[in-house]
Prior knowledge:
- The protein is an alpha+beta fold.
- 22% of the residues lie in helices and 41% in strands.
- The protein has helices at 10-21, 32-36, 68-84, and strands at 26-27, 40-45, 48-55, 91-102, 109-119, 124-133, 138-150.
- Strand 6 and strand 7 form a beta hairpin.
- The longest helix has 17 residues, at 68-84.
- The protein is globular, with a radius of gyration of 15 Å.
- The mean pLDDT is 94.
Amino acid sequence: MQNAGSNENPDRILISQIVDAGLRDTPFVTNLVAQTLGAVVCEAKAGYIRMRFSLGAIHVQGYGAIHGGIVSTALDTAMALAALSCVKVKQSVATINLNVNFVRAAQIGDLFIAADIVKPGSTMSFVSATATDGDRKIIATASAAFAVLAVR
């Protein structure tokens, strides 16, 4: 893995390495927020990412369910990686719009997210995702638009 000081997005470098090598079940180690969510890239190919987030008691709100902001962060992370898997070297992405529709409360345990590029682009990319629990019940669906940016 390259150093983040190389004017390159370390998340893009890692996802590119995972896609190119066909790696599975790879801890997502370049992003501290994702690390706090126990993020693992289960499968990746250009335009598609499947991730697992291991959520615990630290991630719950008062009702005892996983906080909706945590689920939204996990969805945003997976969709950003799907978008990053399609950009060029020295490019990155930034979320410009995020829509999340909750179906049911997430509980402590594994949260799985599958994210697909709907439309890649040179200046904007559109991605959708579905979050499920360990029983494959849908927790939330999401869509997002990402600006494609040059890294300076």
